[in-house]
Write a structure and sequence with these properties.
The chain has 20 helices and 16 strands. It is α/β, with parallel strands linked by helices and about 475 residues long. Strands 2-1-3-4-5 form a five-stranded parallel sheet, with helices on both faces. The protein has a five-stranded parallel sheet with strand order 7-10-13-6-14. It has a two-stranded antiparallel sheet with strand order 8-9. Helix 19 packs across helix 20. The longest helix has 28 residues. The chain starts with a strand and ends in a 9-residue tail after the last helix.
Length: about 475
């Protein structure tokens, strides 16, 4: 067990170090100031931090209280208050920020300090055993993930390392790669798997409703608020709040989410009182957040708060060898006993899959519905997906443009645009934000395009089959 002692009084540090050193297999580090403590916490992991609340001679110094909050929020260590003053207001403030317990310096003794540290050691050992047990029970060590490629092995190892931490996690990877499954695995292997896992798609909920969904609102907070509504931040309790498509959050909501992550507090719409946020935030995006930060579309401070722990979820091109296992997994979930031939599997492995695992799953679903026989060969696969093209003129943008220009279609530009947008919407399963990223345009372009088609078809007296 690693213990960090933070106290500006050398004598107090010496007494605590001597007491803590009586425990077997214990390493002790010391820090005299807030700055030294931060450097120590960045340099190595600690299990316990014994923190003096007043790190200086100034009676108004509250660096220790601030440090307790930072330790609880940004590290895996358990903070314990060591105070030279029986100021219960200070101690309660530290406890609200996440301190496990408190000790008064005048009561420092082996009978008081060592049992508490032994309890913390036992808690940490139990958490590690729980993770190990879950890893042994779950296929491959992590529930829900299919495949044994090197990329997936690296992802599983990373999930097991960060699962017990309560710090924010940022999941990055292409559309359809399985970021939601990773979030569920983190929750299942985390310290509170019995608490709620709440999924919020930041790109699917209108901006006007998102604040109320996240923070909740009081009755009468705005027009139409005829009853009090609990938000996700309180409903999640000590569970996991999964913010999918987090790059789509508006700037005002980015500011409010930043405050939650920094202070662990939030305020429901229409309420004057703060409430504690006890859950863990897992965010996901396939957007280039660094580019959005540089463009001013995403707050830099929020980016670094969310990106405490980052996991890269590989796309299908990084794990082609997992396609047979994925196909078998999706086929086993069908209502009919599908059997894919070796040639059919090889053909699927050669397909272009810009929609990644999600697109592969959709192909298997379509085959399950439309295939004539339970044994699926190359012909059935070719009927429901386009094979990967090997390159050359047939795959170039120039060749596609020439083919379109030679065709009988009237307005070639409009036809090309419509084909691209419809294909992007199909691959993104109706998600406008995801379709916009596939096209390299803003979501508002998709919304304007769909709206213009609705107007055109309505004028012509035709119902427009709008996607998503």
């Amino acid at each position: 067990m690693r213990v960090l002692i933070v106290d500006d009084q050398r004598s107090a540090r010496r007494v605590l170090a001597e007491l803590v050193g009586r425990l077997p297999e214990t390493e002790v580090r010391e820090a005299a100031t807030l700055g030294e403590a931060r450097l120590a916490l960045q340099a190595e992991p600690f299990d316990v931090a014994l923190v003096d609340l007043r790190l200086g001679a100034d009676p108004g110094n509250r660096d220790g209280i601030a440090l307790v909050g930072e330790i609880r929020r940004d590290t895996g260590a358990v903070p314990v208050v060591v105070s030279g003053y029986a100021d219960m207001a200070e101690i309660r403030a530290a406890m609200r920020l996440g301190a496990f317990d408190y000790i008064l310096k005048e009561e420092l003794c082996e009978e008081l300090v060592l049992p508490m540290l032994e309890e913390l050691r036992s808690r940490r050992r139990l958490q590690q055993e729980v993770v190990s047990l879950r890893a042994r029970v779950a296929p491959g060590g992590v529930p829900g993930l299919v495949g044994t490629s090197p990329a997936m092995q690296r992802l599983r190892a990373a999930i097991l390392r960060v699962a017990l931490s309560d710090r924010p996690v940022l999941l990055r990877g292409p559309t359809g790669s399985g970021k939601e499954l990773v979030a569920r695995a983190l929750h299942a292997l985390g310290p509170h798997p019995d608490e709620p896992l709440l999924d919020v798609n930041c790109g699917a909920i209108p901006e006007a409703l998102m604040e109320s969904q996240l923070f909740g609102h009081e009755r009468g907070a705005f027009t139409g608020a005829d009853r009090r509504q609990e938000g996700y931040l309180s409903a999640v309790r000590r569970g996991t709040l999964f913010l999918d498509e987090v790059a789509e959050l508006s700037q005002p909501l980015q500011v409010k989410l930043l405050r939650v992550l920094e202070s662990g507090r939030f305020r429901t719409v229409g309420s004057p009182e703060d409430r504690a946020f006890e859950g863990r935030v897992v965010a996901a995006t396939n957007a280039d957040l660094e580019r959005r930060v540089a463009a001013g579309a995403f707050r830099e401070d929020l980016f670094y708060r969310l990106n405490v722990l980052e996991l890269q979820v590989p796309g299908i091109d990084e794990r082609r060898e997992d396609v047979p296992a994925l196909v078998a997994h999706f086929a086993a979930r069908q209502a009919r006993p599908l059997r894919f031939t070796a040639e059919a599997i090889a053909r699927l492995m050669a397909f272009e899959l810009p929609g990644n695992v999600r697109q592969l799953r959709n192909i298997v679903d379509r085959i399950a519905v439309f295939a004539e026989a339970d044994e699926v060969g190359v012909e059935a696969v070719d009927a429901h997906a386009a094979p990967r093209r090997s390159g050359g003129e047939a795959t170039s943008a120039t060749a596609l443009a020439r083919a379109l220009l030679r065709g009988p279609i009237g307005n070639k530009l409009e036809a090309a645009e419509e084909a691209l947008v419809r294909e992007a919407m199909a691959l993104a399963e109706g998600n406008k934000s995801a379709a916009a990223r596939l096209l390299g345009v803003h979501r508002k372009f998709i919304e304007r395009w769909l709206s213009s088609r609705e107007v055109r078809y309505a004028t012509a007296g035709v119902t427009h089959p709008r996607e998503g």
